[in-house]
Design a protein that fits this description.
heterodimer, A: alpha/beta, B: 5-stranded parallel β-sheet, 5-stranded parallel β-sheet, binds iron/sulfur cluster
């Protein structure tokens, strides 16, 4: 997994609540048996004016000029700013894959849906929860300044704005450790093989019908 | 010492299920929990199998896995296979991965094939006291059996395959108490939608929800599955209901359920799977069943829901700016004007199916409404998609297929179908659908399609009338 330590990145605002994973990556792209290549179809139905299908060349498709990510000022954005309940709905990990493939490394929102939140950490993508007023403040700042960037420091758990303002954020110790070091969960868990085996033996003895 | 004290404290069902599965725990509360049942489907598993192969890892316990293709499968002309080459490749990839890793799979031609959340319980592969995971958010369905069941991402699918464990943290516990008698035409689906309307789609985020109360106790297993299925729509990864005789009677004799002496042992344990008297929840939400009316969603989130005798709300009256904007956007997408009576909304298509409402009881309820009537002229397509081959067979034995066909419904092969429109069953832009599924997100049933979530009875009645009608008044 890709490590996450520091990021100084351009911020793109997506001012909607309840952005669901169907919107992040529509179902037709879930037919892929790969983990990569979803970036061009991130937010497909909002981003393009026509209907997208897997395997199609996306470069010639008509863009929706009203969709925020299509505005030139947000090109190359690495931080997505969003509202409450971001990533709700389907458990598809294709959603963080698509966000990562597009170039995002962090998402700042008022709240996240549980499964999506979890999936982000498995893919080197940092989801950050801030209070509604702070998110509001950031939306205003992004709108006011073209090229608005934020500096995220995972070790320190801070987000620094250009005006010197610093936002602290929470992250669970274990997840932080994995993200900072780019650790693979499976490898970590397999260090506990003996514990799993002894648990398993006990569990089967207690519930032999399983 | 600590364990002893815990034992003495009144425990919730969630506490019991959690405690029984913790393999180890980190200082920050992150735990390794053991997984008893792993359900697998074609969409969220190929990258997990590929990960195993790349790392040269094996499946820890193949017997814990049951695989089935459901999302991509066609609901017509099954014998000819899958026409779409991309869908076909995904299903074939599941077949070859299952063969390679020695995993039990119900193939498309198998009568036991169906929606993963329908076949697990139907086979008795979901049992009380189990931890059940699947790369699918509606895994919460299985909690109806007093199991700890939740959806996981593909990386976690790979993790469970390789280690039989999942890294997770215990969440808070919420109790949703529904007491009283449901009115005529009011169903488990209406309970679920009413709960979501009350607490919102993020109301359960960070919680495991236990549904309890006399109304829940009175539901069949089918109804309980409908309620737990929608827990994720309230933001809760897991929904659950205590085990009782309804649970045990449902499971008896099912292919994967224990038999003989083991059955008796299991039943004795299952009887302990309920929240103790006096157990503490982090939050309690109460609903009076008698106040719940048939529900219809009007927007693009399941929390945008009203009773069928109500009206489309007016965003102008909403004080919260984020909510108002969302409502305005939803009405625009849905092509609806504020204050329109729900009963005046005319529909183009009807979908009866999905892991929420495609079990035998759902089909029976819809058939009662459809019997001797005909689908309205303005309804272009009304389809019934059974949840599994076995549900389909049972329905046919009861003659339900004939009732539907005579009424102008299409009778299809089992699968997810128009719940998410990954196969050919989809809405065209602007089309309006009465659907028994669980998500009304933009484009969920086809790009530009407009979904109204309802119960099977409400969907059948809408098909017959061409617009929503209050089934409690029929
Ligand atoms: S029926 Fe719908 S919600 Fe259920 S598993 Fe299939 S796609 Fe998901």
């Amino acid at each position: 997994m890709q490590k996450f330590t520091m990021l100084n990145g351009l911020v793109a605002p997506l001012d909607r609540a309840n952005v669901d994973t169907d919107a992040i990556i529509p179902k037709q792209f879930l037919k892929s048996i790969k983990r990569s290549g979803f970036g061009p179809n991130l937010f497909d139905e909002w981003r393009y004016l026509d209907h997208g299908e897997p395997g199609r060349d996306n470069s010639g498709r008509p863009l929706n000029p009203d969709f925020v990510l299509n505005q030139p000022r947000y090109k190359g954005a690495q931080i997505l700013l969003a509202r409450e309940n971001f990533g709700c709905g389907s458990s598809r990990e294709h959603a963080p894959w698509a966000l990562g493939d597009y170039g995002f490394r962090a998402i700042i929102a008022t709240s996240f849906a549980d499964i999506f939140f979890n999936n982000c950490f498995k893919n080197g993508l940092l989801p950050i929860r801030l209070a509604a007023e702070q998110v509001d403040e950031l939306f205003k700042a992004v709108a006011a300044h073209a090229g608005y960037k934020l500096a995220i420091d995972l070790e320190q758990q801070t987000i620094s704005a250009l005006d010197g303002k610093v936002y602290k954020f929470e992250v669970e110790t274990f997840r932080k450790h994995c993200l900072l070091n780019g650790l693979d969960d499976i490898g970590l868990t397999l260090q506990h093989v003996d514990e799993i085996k002894s648990y398993e033996a006990m569990h089967r003895a207690a519930q032999p019908w399983l | 010492m600590k364990a002893k004290r815990n034992n003495m404290k009144a425990q919730t069902l969630y506490d019991k299920l959690w405690n029984a599965h913790v393999v180890r725990q980190e200082a920050d509360g992150t735990a390794l929990i053991y997984i008893d049942r792993h359900l697998v489907h074609e969409v969220t598993s190929p990258q997990a199998f590929e990960g195993l192969k790349l790392a040269g890892r094996k499946v820890w316990r193949t017997a814990s896995i049951l695989a089935v293709a459901d999302h991509n499968v066609p609901t017509t002309a099954r014998a000819q296979g899958i026409a779409d080459p991309v869908s076909r490749l995904q299903v074939e990839t599941l077949d070859s991965n299952c063969a390679e890793f020695g995993v039990n799979e119900f193939k498309m031609s198998d009568v036991r094939q169906g929606i993963v959340h329908v076949i697990g319980p139907e086979q008795g592969a979901t049992l009380p006291g189990m931890t059940v995971v699947c790369g699918d958010s509606h895994t919460s369905t299985h909690g109806a059996f007093a199991a700890l069941a939740f959806g996981i991402g593909t990386s976690e699918v790979e993790h469970v395959m390789a280690t039989q464990c999942l890294l997770t943290k215990k969440t808070k516990a919420m109790q949703v108490l529904v007491n009283g008698t449901l009115g005529k035409g009011v169903t488990a689906k209406d309970i679920a939608l009413a709960v979501i309307g009350k607490i919102g789609t993020a109301g359960g985020t960070g919680y495991a929800i236990e549904f309890a109360g006399t109304t829940i106790r009175g539901l069949s297993m089918e109804g309980r599955m409908t309620v737990c299925n929608m827990a994720i729509e309230a933001g809760a990864r897991a929904g659950m209901i205590a085990a009782d005789y309804t649970t045990i009677n449902y499971l008896k004799g099912r292919p994967f359920a224990p038999q003989g002496e083991l059955w008796d042992k299991a039943v004795a344990y299952w009887h302990t799977l309920h929240s103790d008297e006096g157990a503490q929840f982090d939050q309690v939400v109460k609903l009076d069943a008698a106040q719940i009316k048939p529900q219809v969603t009007w927007g693009t989130s399941p929390e945008m829901v009203v009773a069928v005798d109500g009206r489309v709300p007016d965003p102008a009256t909403m004080s919260d700016a984020v909510k108002r904007q969302a409502a305005e956007r939803a009405l625009q997408y849905m092509g609806l004007a504020a204050n329109t009576p729900i009963a005046e909304i005319r529909i183009d298509k009807v979908f009866i199916g999905s892991c929420t409402n495609s079990r035998i009881e759902d089909l029976r309820a819809a058939a009662v409404i459809a019997q001797g009537k005909h689908v309205a002229a303005n309804v272009k397509l009304a389809m019934v998609v059974p949840g599994s081959g076995l549900v389909k067979r049972q329905a046919e034995q009861e003659g339900l297929d004939k009732i539907f066909i005579a009424a102008g419904f299409e009778w299809r092969e089992p699968g997810c179908s128009m719940c998410l429109a990954m196969n050919d069953d989809k809405l065209s832009p602007g089309e309006r659908c009465a659907s028994t599924s669980n998500r009304n997100f933009e484009g969920r049933q086809g790009q530009g399609g407009r979904t109204h979530l309802v119960s099977p009875e409400m969907a059948a009645a809408a098909a017959i009338s061409g617009h929503f009608v209050d089934v409690s008044k029929l």
